[in-house]
DNA sequence: ACCAGCGGTTCAAATATTAAACCGATTAGG
DNA sequence: CCTAATCGGTTTAATATTTGAACCGCTGGT
């Protein structure tokens, strides 16, 4: 593990629910020596990737991230170009909608809109990272990856999040077949209790999965009419975002998913 | 120069006007060996801080920056909380407005709005970094820094951007006196030909300068009535943002600026 | 008044980083 | 159509950087 990799990995310990972290905590969580973490964090701080709370000297993510993200968005407006589509989804569905990006072996939250239509709604955390096997978004991606990559992603232990999480590799693979035919993945409380998730994949210009869009609703509001409606909303949105990002739907049965 | 610092410094070669850079170019610009740059970029790419254009294999800024920026904004909504104020400035002034953050020895563009009121307007680049001595924003900051820091920031060669750029240390220091009394810095085409800039400082909770807000107008539209109006708009906005960010205006004559 | 934990420092030992030459592939020019 | 230059990327021994245990002084809780 290179030094750069270590430094960057430290940033992953910050989240919406843990926005500030102290030196010792960070060292413990990352499993690095305190002196190492200090030096790495100092490097990160010098470049503005983190900054320190002046009174507590805890670290938080820094303004350089905003600056660089702004540059990326201005020349490669992924988030901005999908926003209106997400907005429309949110209004049409009256539920929380989310746009995820496929990372190395996880999904990362790029954007989401929590519905205003209901007081009880699914809450999301900005920039959250979730594993592939337990969420509708994850399954949507897994279903359309090259077969090899799918197996690779499912090669480790499948973590259990709820009583209904599929932790059996075979069961997941089986489910993926249905998703492939359907174009949409659905999970009833597989990632979080009480949440019903639905999502469809987004494709790159080479026809590879790059992310997903989906809807997350309290399972109590899920019923057949709404499910139908949601499916069409999601399918439409996925197509629109794929197109907005310059992607193309892969030809049926290509992309390594067959046999 | 540590390895982490080197890796992070590579990200600074990406900008709105140069969104994609190749390996050799990067090595040349940074003055590092090609093999070194490759390894650093590979580390950055593994973590999603950059990604490669599949067809050209040039690098561009990656989605991890968005993710982390989102987390920061969601828990520390600097940009979002200033947005409405910037919006109001834009509408009231009919000119391009900008919000800058004070970095190590430069200002970094956090946000801006180009006016829709005029076809001829001042254009800005997302995430641009500008030096302190030549812009109104920079002078606004310099004027309210601790004296030592001001001198430090002006210790190097002062780059000339236009015929009217102040490159004489003494002249800048002199101008800062006026800015201190005024609370607003003004520069007629000191950073870019044809652009008249005005800006006021923003303060942190400890009364230290952390950034600036300002207006940039084609100098041909600048006249005494508009100048008056702009001054009040800027002053109001600076106060509002300082407050929105939990900052306080420093007491007069404190902050090391006296004597 | 204590102890435990904090952020931060030190320095010899251990390890990762570097740079020059080299590779095959691609592009530009004569 | 052939040459030369440049591209992204790889390899290697030589080297500079990183590491971690023990140790600060300080703060906050009991």
Order of strands, main sheet of chain A, comes to 5-4-3-8-7-6
What's the pLDDT, averaged over the residues of chain A? 95
Q: If interface size is counted as residues with C-beta under 8 Å from the partner's C-beta, which chains form the largest one?
A: A-B, 52 and 53 residues
The CATH architecture of the largest domain in chain A is 2-Layer Sandwich
- Structurally, the number of domains of chain A stands at 2
| Radius of gyration of chain A, taken over Cα atoms and rounded to an integer in Å | 19 Å
Q: Got a strand count of chain A?
A: 8
Going by helix content, strand content and strand pairing, the class of chain A is alpha+beta
In CATH terms, the superfamily of the largest domain in chain A is: GAF domain
Distance between the termini of chain A: 36 Å
CATH topology of the largest domain in chain A: Beta-Lactamase
General form of chain A: globular
What's the helical proportion of residues of chain A?
40-55%
Uncertain segments of chain A are 254-259
Tell me the series of helices and strands of chain A, N- to C-terminal: HHHEEHHEEEHHHEEEH
